[in-house]
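As the work plan foresaw, our protein records have gained a structure token line. A representative record is set out beneath this paragraph:
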Amino acid sequence: MKAAFIKKTGPPCNIEYGELPIPKIKDNEVLIKVSAVAVNPIDTYIRSGKYTFSQALPTPFIIGCDAVGVVADFGSAVKQFKAGQRVWTNRMGLNGLQGTYAEYVAVDEDLVYSAPEHVDDVALVSVLQSGATACIGLIRAAMLKVSEIVFINGGAGNVGSAIIQLAVARGARVITATSGNEKMEWCKSLGAELVLDYKKDDFSKKIEMVAPDGVDVFWDTSRNPNFEISIPLMKQHGRIVLMAGHDAHPTLPVGLFYSKECTLKGFSLVNANHLELKGCAEIINRCLEDGKLKTKISEVMPLSEASRAHSIIESQPELWGKIVLKIS
């Protein structure tokens, strides 16, 4: 089978495209014939060696977390799927597992989900990682309740866009910040009640108009969280959620933080268990079927251009939208 893989961690040029054996399935595994994969930031971190696991990467290592495709084969213990069924997964390429940048991938049955009928491969795979991040973060870290107000710093990004839509679907009110008219209009189209331009607007004055007591949840998707901005905006007992900014060392206004009795919660999708992922898969599929979950697509490329896709993501931090790799 054709695959995009590395033999050692390092820059994007380490990604090779060539032939590898089709994986042999275990009794509990599903063999998926892959049609599309998404390129996610976590893929670049693992490829570069910045993100490591207790389990060493196999050699050669196939990159990638997400995939959409059809069931090509399945093990004797698999009960939920049949040959030819359209499915997706978003939990590969982690903790020593081979990834999805390949024509075939073997996946534990518990990490495979039925694909919604009327959503095409590119649209589906583009929301899987960001949708799961938003879903688990809103439930486990933010503990978001109906009618609460959530502020999303970076609402036009892949994760930010998913948070807006899933928060609205949960009955919350959404405020977000981005930059530029096009991105602001995008966020409004997703359901945000108030959209701020972080380069121009006075956050405190604008937010006070819709949330005079402050926001219940502040979710910072940026690589440089600023607690001197977020904490003054918080309601008493507010929750701040972090899931980015691996190398950031922000200042924390301790006095205001504890006097408001705020909570700071970090989380990573990598740590989600299969039951959490299954619950989120059901929510993602339902929202997709209802037309309530979408993301921007930056570019669609063939799998053979995986190295170029990684180069683009790393050289263009302001890239808007998801890169998808198609497999013919």
